[in-house]
Design brief:
about 55% strand, Lipocalin, alpha+beta, single chain, 10-stranded antiparallel beta barrel, about 190 residues, 10 strands
């Protein structure tokens, strides 16, 4: 009888201590599923997939006349609808420009993320931001490296969805404590 009681006690202990582990596994699995599943914000980014014509202006220094150029952009969703990749190409100041932006929405942090790389530098710009549905505007902030001052500088980017076929992005950089507009890109959908 004592032997059976001991066996039941051991089974009871493992059954209940193991169930805590199973619940923890279930919670972890649920959290991972919520983190990895594309949602409403990813669907909003997906609406930008397609081909675009771009017009951009770049201010090399505050108050100067901007350099203007035109180009194209092709956007597609990646990794099962989790990220929007946009490849830009054009010519500015007589130089070819190619850049790639990757935008997403972090389900855990509840923020939009934006990564930018191009052939006009060797750095990576990382931004995080929010979306205001009433004004259809994203506001991103982050840092970028300024090759002239050799310092990391604050960057603010405002992207306005004028409509489904027109977007206007303005970028501002803070140098010596003063924010100034450094770029404007108008994107018009062609397909």
């Amino acid at each position: 009888m004592k032997k059976n009681s001991l066996c039941y006690l051991i089974i009871f202990f493992f059954a209940f201590s193991g169930s805590g582990y199973l619940f923890a596994q279930d919670d972890a699995q649920k959290a991972m599923m919520e983190y990895m599943t594309p949602g409403k914000m990813h669907q909003m980014l997906a609406k930008n997939a397609g081909e675009w014509k771009t017009k951009f202006k770049v201010w090399m220094q505050p108050g100067a006349e901007p350099a203007s150029a035109e180009g194209t952009a092709a956007a597609e969703m990646l990794l099962g609808g989790r990220y929007l990749q946009t490849k830009h190409s054009g010519t500015i100041m007589g130089m070819p420009m190619n850049g790639i932006g990757i935008d997403g929405f972090d389900n855990c942090k509840k923020v939009f993320t934006s990564v930018w790389i191009d052939n006009l530098g060797t750095g990576v710009m990382l931004l995080e931001g929010t979306y205001d549905e009433a004004s259809k505007t994203f506001t991103y902030t982050g840092k970028s490296f300024d090759p002239v001052s050799k310092k990391e500088i604050a960057v603010r980017e405002v992207l306005k969805y004028v409509n489904d076929d027109l977007q206007i992005m303005e970028m501002f950089m803070t140098l010596d404590g003063k924010e100034s507009k450094s770029m404007e890109v108008e994107m018009t959908r062609v397909k």
